[in-house]
Amino acid sequence: MAERSIPLIDHRQLAARPAVPVHAAQPSGLLSDRRGRALHDLRISVTDRCNFRCSYCMPKEVFDKDHRFLPHSELLSFEETTRLARLFTLHGVRKIRLTGGEPLLRKNLEILVGQLASLRTPDGEPLDLTLTTNASLLARKAAVLKAAGLQRVTVSLDALDDTVFRRMNDVDFPVADVLTGIEAAIAAGLAPIKVNMVVKRGTNDQEIVPMARFFREQFGGQVVLRFIEYMDVGITNGWRMDEVLPSAQVVQRLHEVFPLRALEPTAPGETAERWGYADGRGEIGVISSVTHAFCGDCNRARLSTEGKLYLCLFAQRGHDLRALLRDPAAYDDRQIAAAIGQIWQGRDDRYSELRGSAAGAEAAAAKVEMSYIGG
Ligand code: SF4
Questions:
Q1: If you measure from the C-alpha of residue 322 to the centroid of ligand 1, how many angstroms do you get, rounded to a whole number?
Q2: Which of 348, 341, 272, 271 has the alpha carbon at shortest distance from 316?
Q3: Among the listed ranges 5-19, 172-186, 303-317, 358-372, which one has the minimum average pLDDT value?
Q4: Which domain holds residue 150?
Q5: Whose CA is nearest to atom 3 of ligand 1?
Q6: Which of 374, 370, 368 has the alpha carbon at shortest distance from 317?
Q7: Is there a smaller number of Cβ atoms within 10 Å at the N or the C end of the chain?
Q8: What is the mean pLDDT of the segment spanning 67-72?
Q9: Whole-number pLDDT of residue 181
Q10: Which residues' Cβ are closer than 6 Å to ligand 1?
Q11: Is residue 82, in this structure, part of any structural domain at all?
């Protein structure tokens, strides 16, 4: 394979210090951005480390033994993370997803889960608290996370065949152990489990039907399998459009074996298009950021592990909320909440709609890495 040069941008250094409005109004909970999109989901990356090296997210040739991961002192503490999460709920956040890197690598994560689970929305409701993991540590952690207040998990699994799985995640980790993690999560009461498969044409697309067959037969409705179009996240994964298998073709392939029927979305801003098995044995989903952009109702914000706020998965620049948290001026909740509100109100992101255009090409040159802000 021809050598490819990989431009590196250390986004950890590129973040604007948010302005704190002079008159910090009390959040109304009705915040919307410049496209009228509300703020509903907050994805929190709790570590930039991972024990896998998935080629589409954290290619080994970049994230190698010399890669400098963030020292612990730079990470937000659990208390800082919970404080920010609480302020985001004042602006309308109702769902929190913990991500990474691999979130289960963060020590004592159940303590953070417990703190987040104790949060309430302004109307006194609990938050929808979920987590995305490669399940390598799930068998050990499922029960304690559930007991701490986690409600659901999403597991990333790109193949059933160990050789193909290794080709996608570039480490020697057996599929069987991921499946054991899924079983432990079901036993702990975290079902239904979502299983996300990134489809890379020419690498693992032959696994689409075997994955569907396996999860239908072994787990029925307890697992919802979702197929994700391979995305040009970050600038290091060597993305090429000819390696994208459009979701329409994924659905077609499955429909030929297991007839499908379209289902309604379950929530506004849902990224997955739902398809039910005509025989009633569960459903699948497809997430089509490349061929069917869903920026129109994107209600997601992302927090990096050291407190930088990103307004899009393909953003170029973050907003350093940690600087406000740790500022000797000791900004109060209302001031920091007002700063967050001001950032969201200025949001205009829609990278997936711009992909392939001149504006998209410009934005593409300096995108943040997904492993740093979570998928
Ligand atoms: S490209 Fe950005 S704005 Fe569009 S759906 Fe994805 S995260 Fe949202």
A1: 23
A2: 348
A3: 5-19
A4: 33-373
A5: 350
A6: 368
A7: N
A8: 94
A9: 98
A10: 289, 294-295, 298, 300, 312-314, 349-352
A11: yes
Please state, in angstroms and rounded to a whole number, the distance separating the CA atoms of residues 351 and 255.
30
Give the count of domains, the chain: 1
d(CA 126, CA 23): 30
Measured CA to CA, the distance from residue 304 to residue 307 in angstroms comes to: 5
In whole angstroms, give the CA distance from residue 223 to residue 262.
Answer: 18
Q: Report the nearest-CA residue for atom 5 of ligand 1.
A: 295
Q: How far is the CA of 372 from the centre of ligand 1 (A)?
A: 16
Task: Supply the CATH number for residue 96's domain.
Answer: 3.20.20.70
What pLDDT is attached to residue 282? 94
Report pLDDT for 358: 85
Tell me if the pTM is above 0.90. Answer: yes
The answer to whether residue 16 sits within a structural domain is no
Q: How far is the CA of 10 from the centre of ligand 1 (A)?
A: 21
294 Cα to the center of ligand 1, angstroms: 7
Q: Which ligand 1 atom is the nearest neighbour of the CA of 352?
A: 1
Alpha carbon nearest to ligand 1 atom 4, residue: 295
Residue 265 lies in a domain: yes
CA of 353 from ligand 1 middle (Å) equals 8
Residue 1 lies in a domain: no
Supply φ then ψ for residue 25, to 5 degrees.
-75, 155
Q: In which band, very low, low, confident or very high, does the pLDDT at 259 lie, cut at 50, 70 and 90?
A: very high
Closest-lying ligand 1 atom to the alpha carbon of residue 349: 3
